[in-house]
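Here is the promised in-class demo. Please do not try to memorize the tokens; focus on the logic of going from shape to residues.
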């Protein structure tokens, strides 16, 4: 009998522990999403659930572009991971906030020049009003986790010059909830991989393509033209891959672009709203001459 009681206790502990493990808020098995209370839905995107309309509205209404970031034209896409516990409280770990910046701004990021943007994003969710918690199929409150993107984009005028002042801030607000890739594009058949695994696999794939298709143009070789060609690769909303050289010796552009011609279609990327979205990669092809 003592063994039976012990086993029953262990079984109960295992079930209780499983219920306390947060599940992804977008997991199809989630029976009931959290429900917001007393938040006006000013943003109502078609196909978006009431909970996400509520989150969109809160983020939009509380978005601010820090003066130091705006005045220094610092742009970023920020992903804010959050957890909603069984009591309906939003919990955010500031250190887990992920900030993506252009490659040339990585030094500024490392030096803490984007901390004001991180602070704004943290406060948006740390101050989110308490919600009715998510529930499982048995009607029990359960913790859920998720991640939300906010874009900080400097608006440009018709001459591609930054729009300054209050008008610029107002324009930046309209871009704060722009679609960004939540699920990365990937090779067909790899949809089950994690987002990090998809990106790593895609990088390996393009590296292999470069090695197998690499060709040094004879005319450039004879003229001793060498250098690095930067290629912008795009996977469109249908999964079609196109490549365009954007910098480097012009004489090497066609050869570099040809490497990526007629590649098999990918499964396209999807944004946070569940729609296909274009995804861009920047790849460098080296053309080096040996002495």
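The designed amino acids, position by position:
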């Amino acid at each position: 009998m003592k063994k039976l009681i012990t086993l029953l206790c262990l079984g109960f502990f295992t079930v209780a522990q499983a219920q306390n493990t947060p599940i992804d808020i977008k997991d199809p098995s989630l029976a009931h999403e959290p429900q917001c209370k007393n938040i006006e839905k000013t943003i109502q995107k078609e196909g978006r659930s009431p909970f996400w309309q509520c989150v969109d509205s809160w983020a939009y209404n509380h978005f601010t572009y820090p003066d130091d970031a705006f005045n220094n034209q610092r742009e970023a896409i920020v992903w804010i991971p959050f957890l909603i516990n069984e009591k309906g409280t939003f919990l955010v770990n500031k250190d887990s906030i992920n900030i993506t910046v252009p490659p040339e701004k990585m030094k500024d990021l490392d030096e803490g020049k984007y901390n004001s943007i991180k602070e704004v994003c943290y406060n948006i969710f740390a101050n989110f009003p308490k919600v009715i918690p998510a529930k499982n199929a048995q009607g029990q409150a359960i913790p859920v986790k998720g991640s939300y993107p906010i874009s900080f984009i400097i608006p440009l005028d018709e001459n591609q010059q930054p729009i300054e002042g209050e008008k610029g801030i107002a324009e930046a607000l309209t871009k704060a909830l722009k679609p960004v890739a939540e699920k990365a594009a990937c090779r067909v058949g790899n949809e089950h991989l994690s987002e990090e695994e998809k990106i790593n696999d895609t990088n390996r794939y393009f590296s292999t393509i470069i090695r197998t298709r690499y060709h040094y143009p004879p005319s450039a070789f004879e003229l001793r033209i060498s250098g690095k060609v930067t290629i912008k690769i795009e996977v469109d909303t249908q999964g079609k891959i196109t490549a365009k050289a954007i910098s480097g010796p012009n004489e090497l552009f066609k050869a570099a672009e040809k490497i990526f011609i007629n590649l098999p279609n990918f499964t396209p990327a999807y944004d946070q709203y569940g729609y296909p979205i274009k995804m861009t990669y920047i790849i460098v092809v080296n053309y080096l001459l040996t002495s």
